[in-house]
Amino acid sequence: MRATRIILPLLLTIHGTTVQAQLPGGDLPDIGTPASTTLSLQDEYKIGLMIVRNLRDAGQIVEDPEINEYLQTLGMSLGSNAQEGAHRFTFFAVKDSGINAFALPGGFIGLNAGLVKATRTESELAGVLAHEIAHVTQRHIARSVQSAGRANLASMAAILAAILIGATTGMPSDVVMGTVTAAQGLAAQQQINFTRANEAEADRVGIGILAAAGFDPAGMPDFFWTLQQHGGGAGRNIPDLLRTHPVTSERIAETRDRANRMDRPRHEDSTGYALIRERLAVQSLPPEANFRDLYHNAQSADLPSNNGELYGRSLALMRSDAPEQAIPILQDMLARRPDVTLYHAALGQAYLAAGRIDAARATLEKAMGLFPRSVPVTMRYAETLMRDGDPKQAHIVLLDLFNNVPPTPEQARYTALAANAAGDVADAYYYMSEYHVISGNLSLAIDQLRLAQAVPGLNAVQRERFDARIRELQEYLPKGKRAREIAGPGNPRPDDRLSS
Fold first, then answer.
1. Cα(152)–Cα(361) distance, rounded to whole angstroms?
2. N or C end of the chain: smaller count of CB under 10 Å?
3. For the segment 480-494, what is each residue's pLDDT rounded down to a tens digit?
């Protein structure tokens, strides 16, 4: 059982946690005195950010610009219709073949690779996201903490502590589960009933979000039915999502009736849905998988319905060290649909994997003109420039993206690597600082800025920029840490340097 499979049932059953002790990866906020049991939006965000950071450190989050951009775009099209502007949403994929999805405190929503593959339409996938968005906008976590009362907060803290330690240290799942068993037992019938009420509310609010965003609201009950099929039959594995979001015939009937009473827009699946579905399926397989056996029937580009499998076949060929065989497949797909950014990016990747750097550079330079500041195209172009021995140009194009599109942690990290390779060492430390800011580790971010300050030959503008950013970050530190930083920050640890 993976750490993500432990996190989901506990978070969605307990739905409210606080830790006031040192844990791997940072501190969780102090959420109040015994008189205050409600999480603020800021506290929720800090908790969620910490969990995501630990998942990333454990290597469980998919770091792929194509997948990230698609999920974020799809998620934000739904989130913008949630009629609630207090939350910021972050959507990400998890390297797990199980069928699961989860909403973390602070608007962080994760989808297992297995769930995306299990959906049959984009409206079904959007229905899952809309349901999880509703958990966030209705503040079920904070409401659950308030309902449970202060007496249960200690047990909730123990549960989250065990989950995070297990996720970051690779502790065996049976040890993690043994640690949380006693605390989990305190989540009695009152808490379960509260969760059922949450689920009903998330269905009702989520289906409204789904319809408002232009998707078929029947996508939600359709996926509930799919889940029920996966969970039926003796001896079959029950999807994790069924354990945390129990689906009954009554629940399917209620959501289907609600969907039938709404306007049913005819939503055509986007090209990106089929392609990302296959990309995520290929990427989530272990390195030892036999990629050559994947999509062996996807030999023809004659039928549009084969596009997803053909794209998946090209990615599988690249994974099996046969990029030359992927190139003609992608060339043909690109010739038919030059408007699809994913084809340009994949063809560039295939040329690069085959060692045809000039062709990769030409393909991606053209794509940069067609799709300026496309994150996948820019990242693949920068990778090609780095392989071509042109880190200066890679730094330039990544900096333009960095300054105009909110960067992901991986984007910030790669920008730092390009800057360092180009000899812009101070800027490299600055980008690594931003990587740690995005990941929620302000102490490491300040360490990187102090390393930037120590680089010889800084001009006055650079020095003031780094000083101002340090002062800004110090204001967000807890009071004790802030005082220690200002009094004497000390030297960053060697393993925190850019070269690590």
1. 58
2. C
3. 555 555 545 444 544
